[in-house]
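Sample intake sheet
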Amino acid sequence: MPLGEVAPLVRRPVAIDPDATYREIGIRSFGKGVFHKPEVSGVELGDKRVFSVEPDDLLFNIVFAWEGAVAVAGPSERGMVGSHRFLTCVCDQERADPSFLWRFFQTEDGLSQLRAASPGGAGRNRTLSLGGLAQLQVPLPPLREQQRIALRLDDATRAISKRAEATASAEAEVNALLRSAFRRATAGAPQVRLGDVAPLMRRPVTVEPGTVYKEVGARAFGRGLFSKPPLRADDLTWQQPFWIESGDLVFSNIKAWEGAFAVAGPEHDGCVGSHRYLTCVPDATRATSGFLWFRLQSPAGMAAIQAASPGSADRNRTLSPKALAEIRVPLPSLDAQRLSTLCKRRPPRFVLRSVTPAMSWANCFPPSCTKPSPKGRRTASPPDHLRTA
């Protein structure tokens, strides 16, 4: 069923009163809901076009809908406004439940349609077209079934949130133990240049036509490496990829300042990184990659990385290879390094996996609400931040 038939776009233009105050909304990506911007006066808004928001509006951020910037307005949004970039759709109360539709747009099926309806390539900004919005195909079981599904998913989300809180608490305890061990290990240790114990080593890939390479990237905030889509040699022009090997310290040279560097594991052997990734290889007789990673992720280490990453182009600040090599790190004995990083792994994630299968997202949507994949599996799935795996 086209979205425009059950939840058409409704715009409520607001005539700005210079003497009044207004509060604008924003929508976070990945289904993380609505946030409120600081209150502003009508004079500050000037001639900006804004539209009123009402509870139960299905909201879309037109430049980030493709990555799940969809939400449902609640009672706290009553009387607030949104710019022209925020679209308000109003459900036919006898046919569609806004919470159900919001949940659907967090599934892979819903997100794939949003991506297809959002052309463009300006970084992460891809604009959702009004025509594309109206033509999005949504499942429409009976209204009572939609409400039941939405309530069930609310229960699942609460259960996952509680378990995430337990994980965060356990992680905080582990990190406190690790910091204590690290302080003991580095007390009185000599300070050395990073370039002396883990020099930069580039391994250029000789690109073979027709070859497909496994490419990786580094997540910010010390969250490790991730797999990118396959890199096809025939798609490369001037780009020069480099090989990555297990044990490498891999730095994103534009995001290292916010913790985008990690230790490559055995599963990353044979992968490649773009020219934007720097690989430092520790001298195995002097330093371990885990110890150096933990040191650089510490407040003192991050301060040094940030100082070595000048620039102010949005979030892109380029890490200088020369400045990286000059960063000073403590260097205790190898035994002390290994001992202080024994518990550097994050707490077990099984606490999140223990949510019962009956509460999984795909199971909450009846078969008619999801499309089978070529392998016969349903594609409904939670957004990344709520996955249980």
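Comment: The domain at 3-140 is CATH 3.90.220.20 (Adenine-n6-DNA-methyltransferase TaqI; Chain A, domain 2). The CA atoms of residues 290 and 330 lie 13 Å apart.
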